[in-house]
Amino acid sequence: MDKNLEELTLTVVADFPVTVRRLWDAYADPRQLERFWGPPQWPATFTRHDFCPGGRSEYYMTGPDDTRSGGYWEFLTVVEGVSFEVLDGFADAGGAPDPEMPTMRAVFSFEEMAGGARLTTTTYFASLDQLEQLISMGMEEGTRSAMAQIDDVLADLRTFAADRAAIAQLLGDTQVRISRVLRGTPRQIWEAHHDPELLNRWFHGPDGWALVGCRVASAPGETTRFEWAPDDGVEGEAFALVGELIETDPPHREVFTETMEGVEGPPTHNEQTLTPVQGGTLLTLVITYASAELRDLILGTGMVDGMEAGYRRLETELLAAG
What we know:
Number of strands: 16
CATH topology of the largest domain: Alpha-D-Glucose-1,6-Bisphosphate, Chain A, domain 4
Number of domains: 2
Shape: globular
Strand content: 35-45%
Radius of gyration: 21 Å
Structural class: alpha+beta
Helix content: 10-25%
Oligomer: single chain
CATH superfamily of the largest domain: START domain
Mean pLDDT: 94
Order of helices and strands: EEHHEEEEEEHHHEEHHEEEEEEHH
């Protein structure tokens, strides 16, 4: 770790006995990143992680007394496997940038080394006062203790393996994050979610059900509608999910609402991102519900198992066929 008061920089160089691809993925995957971004006493939770140019990450760290400290990244550049650059700032309790705290520019550079990979992180400060303020807040010590956790994450190949089924992780009181690595590129996965002909081939939910209605949105403000019905001899009643597209940035990210047709109550707020990783594309879906009770009720219906059945079908029927 090198602190340069003349250049107003703090540079950290760390070597790891893994490939650049493995080290890069630890930063690209929010499930992995949050296991080392905060010091052990202040673990991080990422509620958003758009790992692409123009993207944004939002997170909070939770202290021993449940005190929260928020932060965000704004991605200026992302060159896959080489480097990424962010504006690194503090956030208030509502997630907005905190005007009382400084904002830094940070560059993360990755390079192959004999026997492993090197990560060089350089943080640029706007003034000497800003640098000294953050150093006095324990930035050096916090960085050392946080990065000391990376080795354990890199060694954990099973938890984040590409052949694992979809998993759900509770975030806060009302959110859930569903993650799955799918074989294919982000563009292929995006098209499979937005081409009605392709959707008809995999977006069935559990076995024994069929997609009988499909309206896809391509621009903010347009609405969606997906209807499913059971096959003959399968128990259950037809139902439909409707929503509205809020944001779209193909093939990286989209934000949309969703609710069951005919059911009163606020819709869910869904943020889906597609990030290239080793083995394919990491699909991350963060769903925000109106309450913890509603979230737990929906998850208890076997929703994630139904999504996994669809993802398996997507891989085998679409991607395997090219």
